[in-house]
Specification:
single chain, binds ligand LXAUTJHC, 6PGL, 6-phosphogluconolactonase_DevB, globular, EC 3.1.1.31, alpha/beta, NagB/RpiA_transferase-like, 7 helices, about 260 residues
């Protein structure tokens, strides 16, 4: 088994999955801060990512985190104006970030469409790539920091971040951040980390819950390749964890199904 081999954890339902993922993430952040003083996490948008943040907000264990020594990044963003409720960052703030004492200088939101680059999404993506490169250490791969945990929701079409099947962004091998136009899921214009940037993370955790994700999970875990199923191309340097509920795990081929878990 390699770091890219998916490890599957299947929970009873999406509520328990969010609570268990929250406990797991709090522990991972606390461990990283104990070892190195700081921690870095890449957030995802979507229902499961937001549920995880809400579960952290509701957990008394959140006080174990030194929020001022946590760097937050995003895996993707909807390229809309800064206060737009569709923005992943706006949703993350509502679920958790406004309730904890983060250092604003460590909260690295992706640019919005009313930012300095205006509607030029490629320029906005390049700007975020520069911010990542500035935070990367000399030993870090390809100009992004070695994130402790990178979270990804899995879309019903197997998209992760804003990398959609057969779309140009999923083919990118050089850039760390891309502008996405014509996304099949609205809004059509987005900013996204690329697969090479995702793979620089120590741990990649993919989140999927609900019956509408079952086909996507089964397809991605069957190894079709990243072009057809972007989620299958998302893995970490040390660990790749799929956090699922039973409904989303329901159609995984039997030979890949894990032992029964919480
Ligand atoms: O648009 C997006 O969708 C995906 C998946 O969202 P979900 O609600 O189907 O779980 C999300 O991971 C991504 O960050 C977001 O921009």
């Amino acid at each position: 088994m390699t770091a890219a081999t998916p490890q599957l954890v299947v929970h009873r339902d999406k509520e328990l999955m969010a609570q268990a993922a929250a406990a797991r993430l709090i522990t991972r952040i606390v461990d990283a801060q104990a070892a190195r003083g700081t921690a870095s996490v890449v957030l995802t948008g979507g229902r499961n990512g937001n549920a995880l943040l809400a579960a952290i907000a509701a957990s008394p264990a959140r006080d174990a985190v030194d929020w001022g020594r946590l760097d937050l990044w995003w895996g993707d963003e909807r390229f809309v104006p800064s206060g737009d409720p569709e923005r992943n960052a706006v949703q993350a703030r509502a679920e958790l970030l406004d309730a904890v004492p983060l250092d604003p200088a460590r909260v690295h939101e992706m640019p919005a469409s009313d930012g300095v680059d205006g509607s030029d999404v490629e320029a906005a993506a390049a700007r975020y790539a520069e911010e990542l490169a500035a935070a990367a250490g000399p030993g870090d791969r390809i100009g992004v920091p070695a994130f402790d945990v990178l979270l990804l929701g899995v879309g019903p079409d197997t998209h992760v971040a804003s990398l959609f099947p057969e779309h140009p962004g999923v083919r990118e091998t050089e850039l760390t951040v891309v502008g996405v136009r014509g996304a099949p899921k609205p809004p059509p214009t987005r900013v996204s980390l690329t697969l090479p940037a995702i793979r620089a993370a120590r741990e990649v955790w993919l989140l999927a819950a609900g019956e509408d994700k079952a086909d996507a999970v089964a397809l991605a875990l069957s190894g079709p390749g990243a072009l057809q199923a972007p989620a299958s191309g998302a893995y970490g340097r040390a660990r790749t964890l799929w956090l699922l509920d039973r409904a989303a795990a329901d159609r995984i081929p039997p030979q890949l199904y894990p032992p029964a878990s919480a």
